[in-house]
Write a structure and sequence with these properties.
The protein is globular, with a radius of gyration of 21 Å. Helix 6 (129-138) crosses helix 7 (155-163) and helix 9 (245-263) packs across helix 10 (284-293). The longest helix is centred in the middle third of the chain and has 19 residues, at 245-263. The strands form three sheets. Strands 8, 9, 10, 11, 12, 13, 14 and 15 form an eight-stranded mixed beta sheet that branches. Strands 2-5-6-1-7 form a five-stranded mixed beta sheet. The protein has a two-stranded antiparallel sheet with strand order 3-4. It folds into two domains: 44-126, Alpha-Beta Plaits (2-Layer Sandwich), CATH 3.30.70; 129-396, Vaccinia Virus protein VP39 (Rossmann fold). The two termini are 40 Å apart. It has twelve helices and 15 strands. The chain has helices at 2-7, 9-23, 28-40, 55-64, 117-120, 129-138, 155-163, 177-189, 245-263, 284-293, 325-328, 369-375, and strands at residues 44-48, 68-69, 75-77, 80-82, 94-97, 104-107, 124-126, 145-148, 169-174, 195-199, 215-220, 270-275, 298-300, 321-323, 333-339. The protein is of the alpha/beta class.
């Protein structure tokens, strides 16, 4: 390990210099201090695990334990009503119910909940707000089947399981055995019994496998540069805003391959694609290339109540979601939603139980999660699509980023 670092010392020092220049500081110590001050102002986000407890009971428990529930105050920002009671105003010991996500609570900066009984029981999960966006954007219908393509460590997986109220089935894939073991332990603690975790490379999972013939939703959160991570929730700082073009190109090609592979599952009608990156190369450029490769899919406006959208210079990016760490007080993030008029196959009997109980997975089902969120304005109906099969292969698709003489801090997608 030491030898490997030594061999890359020159490149590491150059990358550090780029990051310090972008941050306007003269030393690594000053860089850490600057980033630390910003992170210290971040609120503590807590997702209620509705598989174990209702939000009302979680709120009551926190109040019983001495926390003060504050009322949100509407405020104007960037021409849109968002933010509610600004999280900067929350003090330690105070919390509010998040205005965008129904299962999220927001505590004042510096609140330490790691030893709280609800956290230890996984009744609530310490999860950044931006990380909660993909499951809400996916809006999987009750009783449906879902694939979480790159699942570990499992927070998004348990979130999808909870959004299904424990019904249906979630296939969770990860190739790393250590990460898979950790994910299984977390899912067990969260009581996500409707999840089947499998050690597999998503790109090698056959789209013709009968086991996945009924999958209608895919959550795809592939490996990325992590350039949006600002250490929220006690995570290590993984920002790499000085990432070289070749690394971003490699990541983008993998992300596109994964997205196009997800497009091929026969019954899938909605896909949530997300990264914790601020770079266009991993976000809008991947989305743009995928739409050109397979015109059967259309980009839909996801989470329309959120104020910050994609890079305005790229067509269709207004349908995507962006999160700016400094402006939004959480980790940098990107989310895009794809839809097509996929055939909804006839329900099959549950092979693990007796009988032939059928679940209505259509968007018109009375208890449909999709229908409820559509009524709230969080999802929109898919438009008509081209029914001809695309002959474009993954290998033939290349993402070409605009030529740059010298890489600069890229935030043009953040408005």
């Amino acid at each position: 390990m030491v030898r490997a670092v030594a061999e890359q010392e020159q490149q590491l020092r150059a990358a550090l210099a780029d990051v310090m220049h972008a941050a306007g500081v003269e030393s690594a110590r000053e860089l850490l201090s600057t980033r630390s001050r910003v992170v210290q102002d971040f609120p503590r986000f807590v997702r209620v695990n509705t598989l174990l407890i209702s939000k009302e009971k979680a709120v009551a428990q926190f109040q019983h334990d001495g926390f003060t529930l504050c009322q949100r105050k509407e405020q104007e920002s960037n021409g849109a009503r968002w933010g509610g009671m600004q999280t900067r105003q929350l003090k330690r010991g105070e919390f509010i119910e998040d205005e965008h996500l129904s299962d999220l609570l927001v505590f004042g900066p510096g609140t330490d909940l790691h030893d709280h009984a609800l956290v230890e029981k996984a009744a609530v999960i310490l999860q950044d707000k931006a990380s909660c966006f993909p499951a809400h954007a996916l809006a999987a219908s009750q009783g449906s089947q879902v694939i979480d393509a790159c699942a570990a460590p499992g927070n998004k997986t348990s979130h999808v399981a909870a959004s299904l109220s424990g019904s249906g089935k979630v296939f969770a894939f990860d190739l790393n055995p250590r990460r898979l073991k950790l994910m299984k332990a977390r899912l067990k603690q969260a009581r996500a019994v409707n999840v089947e975790a499998r050690m597999a490379d998503f790109l090698k999972v056959s789209t013709d496998d009968p086991a996945y013939a009924r999958v209608e939703f895919i959550l795809l959160d592939p490996s990325c540069s992590g350039s949006g991570m600002w250490g929220t929730q006690g995570l290590s700082e993984e920002a790499d805003e000085g990432a070289d073009e070749s690394r971003l190109q490699g990541l983008a090609e993998f992300q596109l391959q994964a997205l196009l592979h997800a497009f091929k599952f026969p019954a899938v009608r909605r896909i949530s694609y997300s990264t914790c990156s601020i770079h266009d190369e991993e976000n809008e450029h991947v989305v743009e290339a995928a739409l050109k490769a397979d015109p059967r899919w259309k980009l839909q406006r996801c989470l329309p109540q959120w104020h910050r959208r994609g890079n305005p210079k790229i067509e269709g990016a207004e349908n995507c979601v962006r999160v700016d760490p400094e402006g939004d007080m959480m980790n940098g993030f990107f989310v895009a939603c794809f839809e097509r008029d996929a055939p909804i196959l006839a329900p099959m009997p549950d092979q693990t139980t007796k009988g032939t109980h059928k679940v209505d997975r259509s968007k018109n089902a009375p208890d449909s999660k999709y229908q409820k969120r559509k009524a709230m304005g969080w999802v929109s109906e898919p438009t008509a699509i081209d029914t001809e099969d695309s002959s474009t292969s993954t290998a033939a698709v290349v993402i070409k980023a605009p030529a740059k003489k010298k890489r600069k801090k890229n935030r043009q997608g953040i408005t």
